[in-house]
Amino acid sequence: MKGKALVSRLAVLLMFGFITACGPRMTTVTDYTPPVTDSGMRCVVAANQDRAACESANSIAIEQCSERASIDADHALNHAQKMYTKNLEQYIVDDERYEHNFIHYQEQKRLILRDGELAYIKCSDDVKMESVDQFPECKKFLKKAKKRAKKLYPPHSPDKPYPPNRNTIFNRFLSECNNQMINCEQAFNQSYRSCGGTITNRQVCVSNCQ
User: In the chain, what are the domain boundaries?
Assistant: First the structure.
């Protein structure tokens, strides 16, 4: 019964997902209502000109910043490649040490298991392994193996470095360019309202509408 209830619940969740996926898709539309006075309309014309000038300035600025970002990315890539070579050399040394330590760890683990088996053999054959440490004659054989086991830790493998990617470095610098851009649309909207115009937002269905 529990399995059937789980299947029924899953079916309801899936059906809800299908209904949600097939629901209407909305988008926000901005309506601009112009001012009613001639002076207000002239103000809007000036605001449009200011927005065009702002967008042009942004285009020039982003182009110049992109060129600088490309140069900075080349310098950063050169430095990153040197660091990568250095880290790779260190990784090779650390990895060889890790392999050596891992072999030693495996050997120590084998010896501990061997000591545990020997301790079990030295105990009475009537004693079960899960209760062997409850018998005084067995404890002394197991104590040493347990003490060694507590001190034994597997070695950690070193993290392998990866070569730098120029696109990733360039995009990091380019994102700084985008942060320096002026929000021309926001400035225009402020001017538009100052001119006496009205700006309103509304939700409009674009697909799966009823």
Answer: 36-207
